[in-house]
Design a protein that fits this description.
The chain is of the alpha+beta class. It is built from 11 helices and 26 strands. The strands form 7 sheets. It has a 7-stranded mixed beta sheet. It has a 6-stranded antiparallel beta sheet with strand order 7-6-5-2-9-10, with no helix packed on it. The chain has a 3-stranded antiparallel beta sheet with strand order 15-14-26, with helices on both faces. Helix 4 crosses helix 11.
Length: 426
């Protein structure tokens, strides 16, 4: 199967270079570009979009090609019939059936959207109900807008091998997405639902060098691209994907590892290695009812005013091998009724949000400490935890710690994904 995937990558590369030589897509004319093209959705679907263009931008619809002479604003609005109304500044370009393309002939211009700059080709399209913006660019260029965002822009030379490991993982993730069926509008999203992509912004020299040094390298397992995940800080152990996301375990390299050496956890250098959150009872009641739909709906349907329901208890039922909480119960009650709700695995950190209510709990690796008054009412809850993120796959701070101790990128990847190997995809 891996051979078929490799042939597909090479064929896509050959197609890109052929198209470039024909002059149809001059933005891909660099002979140094290798690998396939990735289509990144860079904005949430909407009814219309505004994109700032520089002079020289080419706008192409099915029947029109328009060259922008001065900097202008491209406005695309979905019409009632599902078509796109396209305008460049005050100049109407006309209607488009479903999509338009924009690029720069000399490959030096950029597009600005929501405060970020992008290059290569933008495609604005509609599925008849919403408008999408997709940035199509070679995979290696895509990685420049990803790697520093994911591993951190402040990485230093002694952490270079961790940045290389991140580049290999980000490339592997994208290649696995490209191996999916083509009948979709884009390959990846440019946010945490896939990988954070900021276009021309946020790139660093160290990350770009790591991408260049690992050109075409990806993680493979038994002839196919490995299924890769990464997170900020594991807190000392990673966990099996089957337990965190409650799905059948089919990947032996995603079973979880003890991430420590002779001198302790490799990620102990992380600012999130250990942390504490403290809640007043009223705060936690509000967070739980806002974050747990079943609890909120059950209490609203009870006929008893929400103000009369109070948090009575919070307890850990079971843990995973890494120490992460697998099942958590919380009790709400009043003088007439007592209800227990249970949350599982990774959903726990989405239910017990941080005290600000806007960000999720850093991880599911924690202990509970409950303070009560003389009448046994909860007054406050303290959560003392470790790590950040889901805990599956590569621990980024652990990788940084390993790099500082002299581990090479391939050794780092072998530690977190045992049994996999780094191969050349192109």
């Amino acid at each position: 199967m891996f051979t078929r995937l490799l042939l597909r990558v090479l064929s896509v590369t050959a197609f890109v270079l052929f198209v470039s030589s024909c002059g149809t897509a001059p933005h891909l004319a660099e002979s140094v570009i290798r690998g396939p093209v990735v289509r990144v959705c860079i904005a949430d679907p909407t009814d219309g979009i505004d994109i700032a263009l520089e002079a020289g931008a080419i706008i192409e619809t099915a029947g029109t090609r328009y060259t922008v002479k001065d900097s202008t604003l491209l406005r695309c609005l979905r019409l009632d019939d599902g078509r796109l109304d396209v305008r460049a500044g005050a100049n109407p370009i006309g209607d488009a059936d479903s999509r338009i393309r924009c690029w720069y002939k000399d490959d030096t211009g950029s597009f600005s959207l929501a405060g970020r700059r992008y290059a290569d080709t933008l495609t604005i399209m509609t599925d008849g109900t919403r408008v999408y913006v997709v940035n199509a660019l070679p995979l290696e260029r895509y990685l420049r807008g990803v790697v520093a965002n994911e591993i951190g822009a402040g990485r230093t030379e002694d952490e270079f091998e961790a940045v290389k490991a991140q580049a290999i993982l980000a490339r592997t993730y994208a290649l696995a997405k490209l191996a999916l069926p083509l009948a979709r509008l884009f390959d990846v999203r440019g946010d945490t639902r896939d990988q954070v992509f900021t276009g021309l912004d946020g790139q660093t020299a160290l990350a770009s060098r790591a991408i260049q040094r690992t050109m075409g390298q990806a993680l493979s397992f038994e002839g196919t691209w490995a299924e890769v995940y990464y997170h900020g800080t594991c807190g000392g152990s990673t966990e099996a994907v089957s337990l965190v996301w409650k799905r059948p375990q089919s990947k032996p390299y995603l079973a979880g590892i003890r991430d420590a050496g002779r001198h302790g956890a490799f990620c102990a250098i992380s600012p999130n290695y250990r942390w504490t959150e403290t809640y007043r009872r009223e705060e936690l009641e509000s967070i739980l009812l806002a974050s747990h739909p079943s609890a909120r709906e059950t209490i609203l349907l009870s006929g008893i005013p929400v103000s009369e329901w109070h948090l009575l208890d919070l307890k850990i039922l079971t843990r995973m091998p890494s120490g992460r909480v697998e099942r958590l119960a919380f009790d709400f009650g009043n003088r007439r009724q007592h209800l227990t709700f249970v949350e599982d695995a990774d959903r726990i950190r989405w239910t017990i949000r941080r005290p600000d209510g806007n960000s999720i709990l850093r991880s599911d690796l924690f202990d509970l400490f409950i303070d009560r008054d003389a009448q046994r009412w909860i007054t406050s809850v303290t959560i003392r935890g470790g790590g950040s993120g889901h805990g599956i796959g590569l621990c980024q701070w652990g990788a940084i710690g390993r790099a500082r101790k002299g581990f090479l990128a391939e050794e780092i990847l072998q530690a977190y994904f045992p049994g996999t190997s780094v191969v050349s995809a192109y």
